[in-house]
Design brief:
alpha/beta, ABC transporter involved in vitamin B12 uptake, BtuC, 3 domains, Rossmann fold, 23 helices, four-stranded antiparallel sheet
Length: about 600
Amino acid sequence: MMRRHLGFIAFVGLLGVCPLVLPEFYVTLLNYIGLSALVTLGVVLLTGVGGLTSFGQAAFVGLGAYSTAFLTTATDLPLWVAPFAGSPWIALLAGLLLTGVVALVLGFLTLRLSGHYLPLGTIAWGISLYFLFGNLDFLGGFTGISGIPVLSVVGIELRSGRAFYYLIWIVVLVAVRVIQNLLDSREGRAIRALQGGTLMAEAMGVDTARAKMIVFVLAAFLACVSGWLYAHLQRFINPTPFGLQVGIEYLFMAVIGGAAHVWGAVVGAAAFTILKQWLQDWLPSLLGSSGSYEVIVLGVLLVVMLQRAREGLWPVLARLVPDTKQPITFEVTEVSPRNPILALGTELLDCRNVRKEFGGLVANDDMSLLVGAGEIVALIGPNGAGKSTMFNVVSGVWPLTSGEVRFRGERVDGMGARQIARRGMSRSFQHVRLLPCMSVLENVAIGAHGRGRAGVLAACLHTERREEREILSFAAAQIERVGLGEFMVAPAGSLPLGQQRILEIARALCANPSLLLLDEPAAGLRYLEKQALGELLRRLREEGIGILLVEHDMDFVMGLVDRCVVMEFGQKIAEGLPAEVQANPAVLAAYLGGAL
């Protein structure tokens, strides 16, 4: 255990010694690094882990700073604000409350955007809050607020930078630990699943809107705490440190340190702050004139880094230290299924007269099909026949135009993918959707998201370990079930395509489905891999799971399935046993007269 934490202990020891031996200038620099690391940690969580680019985090720093500055200096406060006045610690609670409300409102408006519109949205509200701080007279306008009281901890006044140093870095280390706990949990996997796309995450039962809001609010809270510390360290604030340019710098710090790594926030904040300070001191003497030359140099260095080391500095540093981290420990156990398998032949899926239109294009027209428990049904047809559209309609990705989809007797055509997944329908994808940097076990455990109940607070405080062990144990059982046990802790991206497709099936099985929807599971597989896949699907059929698959490999399909449904131009043109379908003239014509 000691060896595992040796690097962390050494880092903490070094932090503890620094203010005792370093000059005041360097202690001040370390204070600013710590404050920046807090905000950058939120950027890592939001952008590097959650895939949501934000340029506006400096505005949340301003909310924390102005909240405590106003509440601790104003004398004539409205009655509804007065209870929060006086104490900086009560002001911190008020700042967090205000930040939470603002983050919820801005998140509701902004997180619905996608692509380049999302970062543009964060720029918009970042600029708006900056000018709001500067134009409100009771906040001091662009002149700012002075006279912010000294912060006191257990009766000790933190009047100097050296005294404040320890509080800043204790908060940073606690925040790093809390975020690590969160990411190493069911809720954390849901957040990381956002990198795989909304479609995959929702199909695994993850509420992606909630996951996005969680990371948005948490990142805002971290920025707010940084602003609160900054205000009481400086004892004076104005809008300048909370503008768009500073928000961009926080994003630079995350990229430099390693946007996908928690400790990258600390490394990036340190590297950027030290380099910027060094350039500000050195460039004017070199060029013989003053100016913001450091911005130019930092911009060029960032472009070079994005070309040469896109993962940032932390992975490079981590490779220099021997890996003493112990592998994930778990016990493969049988866990009672959340969706019990029904008796063989029981009707699972009943699609009636399904029609799906995209504007004037009819992708599915009067499509009907049935799938029972313990049955494999193939949905086949030439390219463009509408098979994938049918899959997406059945699984709730797209709403149908008319018709009905019933699953286990319940109408589900008005539900989203997440609600349908939680009722026992799970799927794979035509193009593999895995998180390559996460282990095989963690990828599969995403499928068990619906089995857990512990929330964000329990994850952050590390109190959901029993539930987490049960989820990982069940995920491990599914990996063993599909024959990938030896790759349990390997990165999913290191597996060949055939095993990645099997891995997707294991992830789908982790949701305890009654019905599996498999979209071209044999695509790109070699002969032996197809044989292994076929054996797996037969075992699942014997266990009572219904399977609906889309596939183009007719040799694979005809030797495996119980029934075939053939589509052309969005309509069903044939249905029956494989032999019957092979002899059907309409099917042969659809495949251009070629033999099946």
